[in-house]
Design brief:
Radius of gyration: 24 Å
GO biological process, one term: tryptophanyl-tRNA aminoacylation
Protein name: Tryptophan--tRNA ligase
Number of helices: 15
Strand order of the largest sheet: 1-2-3
GO molecular function, one term: ATP binding
Organism: Micromonospora mirobrigensis
Subunit structure: Homodimer.
Distance between the termini: 53 Å
Strand content: 5-15%
Order of helices and strands: EHEHHEHHHHHEHEHHHHHH
Length: 352
């Protein structure tokens, strides 16, 4: 392994949105030029909360859309390795070996596990969801990534990976780099409903693939100050999703400051503030739309990237697994048994 590596990715559960962009994609776009970058299509992780036949069948189209979104966001196809997690069974082998290096109480302390179960409508945490951080550790360590850009939800998962890597290296020798977490400048983005983070499942998201009219419609319906019944009533800026989005997506800082001042004084209405926000988001999305059009103009590009990336990644994971088994001494166990069996066979075949 020569160049330093980055591992990041998403579950193929639907199109990506602005929350994904600020949470991790912006970092991916920035970092992928500096690192040998692996982008996982985490369909095995998807099974922890979505595992019907219909969910699995939809994963094919969702995977293609996800890769298209990432390329449209600015990741260059010749600087990224996209791969399908379920097509690399050796990741499961590594997961089996790593799961004995972490305890159940430690996994139960990961805050997002119960949240993920609740969001999926599950009363109890499935075994696979409890072990989600261990499989994620296998994902990261199987390509020996040194950098992992993640959103707030996955920060605790990466810390589990760091602990597992250190424990493995202590027990068996230096095999894995201890990956560094790269946090986002904006950890989370509240949804358009103002009640929770932006999420595909909650229907409160603005998608990276949304057209200008859809963005404008969603922004017009955004939650704002509920106590403001008229434009001349002073409004609250703090905690107001409309202004939170202005802070992130409107580069005209002076104009945003002016809008906040006028809003607090009751000198601008919600409609006007939302119209300016819709304009700002559409300006932000316009370059993404242009790149998307170029990606979609080559109908075979995304499938080709996934297949070639999966083949390359599987070769890397096989190499890692050989080193892991050798470091643990597992390879020698079978070799010793085989040598004894061969000696016994030869002895039986030798005339007395």
């Amino acid at each position: 392994m020569s160049a330093a590596r980055m591992l990041t990715g998403d579950r193929p559960t639907g199109r990506l949105h602005l929350g994904h962009y600020v949470g991790s994609i912006a970092n991916r776009v920035r970092l992928h030029q500096r690192y040998d970058s692996f982008f996982i299509i985490a369909d095995l992780h998807m099974l922890t909360t979505r595992n019907t036949r219909e969910d699995i069948e939809r994963a094919t189209d969702n995977a293609r859309e996800m890769v298209t979104d990432v390329l449209a966001a600015g990741v260059e196809p010749d600087r990224a390795t996209f791969y399908l997690q379920s097509a690399i069974p050796e990741v499961g082998d590594l997961n089996t070996l790593l799961q004995n290096l972490v305890t159940v109480p430690r996994l139960e302390r990961v805050p997002s596990i119960k949240e993920m179960a609740r969001d999926a409508g599950k009363d109890e945490v499935p075994y696979g969801l409890l072990g989600y951080p261990v499989l994620q550790a296998a994902d990261i360590l199987c390509v020996r990534a040194q950098v992992v850009p993640v959103g707030k939800d996955n920060a605790a998962h990466v810390e589990v990976t760091r602990e597992i890597a250190r424990r493995f290296n202590h027990l068996y020798g230096e095999v894995f780099p201890v990956p560094e977490l790269v946090p986002a400048e904006t950890p989370t983005l509240v949804g358009t409903d103002g009640r929770a983070k932006m999420s595909k499942s909650r229907g409160n998201a603005i998608g990276l693939a949304d057209d200008a009219a859809t963005v404008r419609r969603k922004v017009r319906g955004m939650y704002t100050d509920p106590n403001r019944v008229r434009a001349d009533v002073p409004g609250t800026v703090e905690g107001n999703p409309v202004f939170a989005y202005h802070d992130v997506f409107n580069p005209d800082r002076a104009r945003v400051a002016e809008l906040k001042e006028r809003y607090r004084a009751g000198r601008v209405g919600d409609v006007a503030v939302k119209e300016e926000l819709a304009d700002a988001i559409n300006r932000f999305l316009d370059p993404i739309r242009e790149r998307r059009a170029r990606v979609e103009a080559d109908p075979g590009l995304v499938d080709r990237l996934i297949v070639e990336g999966t083949e390359r990644t599987r070769a890397e994971v096989r190499s890692t697994l050989v080193e892991v088994r050798r470091a643990m001494g597992l390879t020698a166990v079978y070799q010793r048994v085989r040598r004894r069996a061969e000696r016994t066979r030869r002895a039986a075949a030798t005339p007395s």
